[in-house]
Design brief:
The protein has 423 residues and is of the alpha/beta class. The protein has helices spanning 75-84, 103-116, 139-144, 160-172, 184-187, 196-201, 209-225, 237-248, 285-297, 332-341, 347-354, 356-361; strands at 3-12, 17-26, 29-33, 44-47, 52-55, 57-59, 87-92, 120-126, 149-151, 176-179, 192-193, 205-206, 228-231, 253-258, 302-304, 377-387, 405-415, 418-422. α1 crosses α2 and α7 (209-225) packs parallel to α8 (237-248). The protein is globular, with a radius of gyration of 21 Å. This is Dihydroorotase.
């Protein structure tokens, strides 16, 4: 369908474009910005005066829960929630049942995502078989089946030598490895950041060193192996500084942070609400401020939802017995807009961290508005507001932000020129 979008403020962080212009879409691709192509006749027109047109958001961690955990979510429900949050491209982690360590699982996920049609899905393959950290998964076969990167989640490798071999093998084929740096033994049994809040509440702590010790080791192995590496879910200011130092040394490393880590601190746990039970944990105000500065400077180039939907029962037990994780992809845009509202980031920089930054980190064909490229476009009203949860598409309602009035409202999400969500 030939579509024109009239009068939007077009922001494309990848090219630095920021101007009021019209967009023209044909054959699923963006055919022009500004001037209509010769002979273009629109079949559909979207009036976008007062709206911002940006590249569709790219979320590097959205648990789709399928296959294996359909009580928590499905590919159809969670990709629709993603589209409602302005996301057109997302990566799903390998924590499924069975684990995403075979081509068959990758193909199942991709087939069901295509059937749903709400957003483009890029699977993250398991780095080790069964995520057990002992034997390397069949990485090349997984790559050929559509996996864009490989990781082991928070499951540690049994020893550093095996991990080193895995990284060297990945480097041989120019594959990207995703690290969730947390030392299993330092974090074991912990529920919250080791500090004053955890002590006051009587919760077992996870020290900052659980992240920094593992991160330092992982960076040294990256340097030795030469692998392309992305560090996911950073939680500490010192962790962000380690990434900055590595980048300064010329290491090919990128990083992301969970959006909720830029907003919340461990003080949110004071009422023992399991909605704040996440792994790795919420940390201190100083850590949050350090992460914010790293996002502002570009050391952390991607903000992700780290969406983990859960059924109601998973969050009803006492704090320590509940399952960690927060449902957040549907709120990615409005929740991120609070960072603009608070004066931390300007709008083009925020959109860079939500689109071109994550796309470049994992080399995804997404995150830009450019003639000839896929028409994956977000149209939103920066002046309107969203009441979180008023319309809710994810199966998981485990978000502490439900009921909050948040800035920004997604009006249209377009995937390959087709409207996949209209708000």
């Amino acid at each position: 369908m030939r579509t024109r979008i009239l009068g939007a403020r077009v922001i494309d962080p990848s090219s630095g474009l920021d101007q009021v212009a019209d967009l023209y879409i044909e054959g699923g691709k963006l055919s022009a910005i500004g001037q209509a192509p010769a002979g273009f006749e629109a079949e559909q027109t979207l009036e976008a005066s007062g709206l911002v047109a940006a590249p569709g958001l790219v979320d590097l961690s959205v648990a789709l829960r399928e296959p294996g955990y359909s009580r928590k979510g499905s590919i159809a429900s969670e990709t629709l929630a993603a589209a409602a949050g302005g996301v057109t491209s997302l990566c799903c982690p390998p924590i499924t049942k069975p684990v995403l360590d075979t081509s068959a699982v990758a193909e199942l996920i991709l087939d069901r995502a295509r059937e749903a049609g709400h957003a483009k899905v890029f699977p993250i393959g398991a780095l080790s078989k069964g995520l057990d950290g002992e034997q390397l998964a069949e990485l090349v076969a997984l790559r050929d089946a559509g996996c864009v990167a490989f990781g082991n989640g928070l499951n540690n490798f049994r020893n550093a030598r095996t991990l080193r071999r895995a990284l060297e093998y990945a480097a041989t084929f120019d594959l990207t490895v995703i690290f969730h740096s947390q030392d299993h033994y330092l974090a074991e049994g912990g529920l919250a950041h080791e500090g004053a809040t955890a002590s006051f509440l009587g919760l077992s702590g996870i020290p900052e060193t659980a992240e920094t010790v593992a991160l330092a080791r992982d960076l040294l192995l990256v340097e030795q192996s030469g692998v392309r590496a992305h560090f996911s879910q950073l939680t500490s200011a010192r962790g962000a500084q380690l990434i900055a130092d590595a980048q300064a040394r010329g290491l090919p490393v990128t990083a992301d942070v969970a959006l909720y880590q830029l907003i919340l601190t461990d003080e949110a746990l004071i009422d023992f609400s399991s909605l704040y039970h996440v792994q790795p944990p919420l940390r201190t105000r100083a850590d949050r401020d350090g992460l914010r500065e790293a996002v502002k400077s570009g050391v952390i180039s991607a903000i992700s939802s780290h969406h983990q939907p859960h059924e109601l029962d998973a969050k009803l037990a006492p704090f320590g017995e509940t399952e960690p994780g927060m449902s957040g992809v549907q709120l990615l845009l409005p929740l991120a807009m609070t960072l603009v509202q608070d004066g931390l980031l300007d709008l083009p920089t925020l959109l860079a961290r939500l689109s071109s930054g994550p796309a470049q980190a994992l080399r995804l064909p997404a995150g830009q508005l450019k003639a000839g490229h896929a028409a994956d476009i977000l149209l939103f009203d920066p002046q309107a507001s969203t009441v979180a949860g008023e319309s809710w598409y994810s199966k998981g309602r485990n978000s502490p932000f439900l009921g909050h009035c948040l800035p920004g409202q997604v009006r249209y999400t377009l995937v390959d020129g087709h409207i996949s969500f209209q708000g």
